[in-house]
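User: Show me a protein chain along with its predicted structure.
Assistant: Here is one chain, sequence first, then structure tokens.
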Amino acid sequence: MARIFALFTVLAALLGFAPWLVPLAKQSVRLVEARDDPAAVADLGLADLDAARVAKETESALAADDIALATSFVALADARGITIDPALRERVAAANGALASTLRGAKEFGMGFLTGEPSDLAGLAGAATGDLMVWGDIRDAGREGWKLAHGEDADELILGLSAVGIAVTAGTYATVGASLPLRAGITLVKVAKRTGKLSAALGRSFMRAVRQSVDFVALRRLLKAPGAVDGPALKGVVRSDRLASLTRMLDDVAVVQSKAGTRAALEGLRIADNGNDLRRVARLADAKGPQTLAILKTLGRGAILITGALLKLVWWAFVAALYVYLLVSSFNAFCVSCARATWGGRRGRRRHKREGAPAARRRWWRREEAPVCLALPEEPRLDAPRPAPEPGRAEAERFAAAAREAMA
């Protein structure tokens, strides 16, 4: 009976943990199932996002004149059903008004065209226009080539991308714009590298792809030669048959820019570490659209991968599996113990009845077994008559005695 009470206590304790553990287990299982879906991972990471957090982030973006981020937070709140103060919504709408957008766009277009460092779509259009006119790529290649010729540290990534950009621009004209997404990706990566928004790990991945695509030995020889560097000469150092890896990464950057905007693309280049991360950012942008920038700002790498904060939920999934095992084992042991206590006494009473012994008395707190008597063999008595000899044994003894006398 003590075993039954112990198992019942364990079973009750496990059932008491269920209301607290089951919701965590369900969320953990959903996270494990969504590990390959960036949009689902982002939704789980944003489960605690509330109206106060959205309002704070939107106010901060407006104060910093970051209209793209403020607009993205409004889109994220609308998608998740979070209420926004109407006054705050009007301020964001006014910042995106026709006159304000036109003036800001003209300014950013000019800065992007001249410096090649855009901060929004208009600036990217200016930088892309400069690159399409080969002005931007020759400008960047000339600047880095001058450093290389004078023994200074040149940025080989920008130098190689500029050479690839010249080759891609020629293909864009030849294919009537078919290479425009690739051209936009080159511009964005160059911008991210110049402004420090390209992660070091992703920069190394791009550098490996660029080294496969560009003959740097020929490029250095070309830049150190006397005379001006022109577009056709730079185009000649590009290995067109080895552009697959670089093209795939640049296409993903272009997808993010087209679906979520320039700021989201630059933010994706900041948090990604390799080509696979870029592919996940592109899938997130394709699913979330204008919400992507706010999601990346809020979650960082947690928007595309299971990070340390979300890894705790995966741990709870294993805890839940152990919990289910203990619960089932305890319930099974409890049922077996109850069955033994119920049916074991009946079998004992039937056995004693067959053997002629008194049946064991049952008590609700304990069970008493009837004493078992053991039958011992009786000792032989001294005065007991000796057993009769076997037939023919006496005659055999007499014959043996006569034979011994004759031999003597």
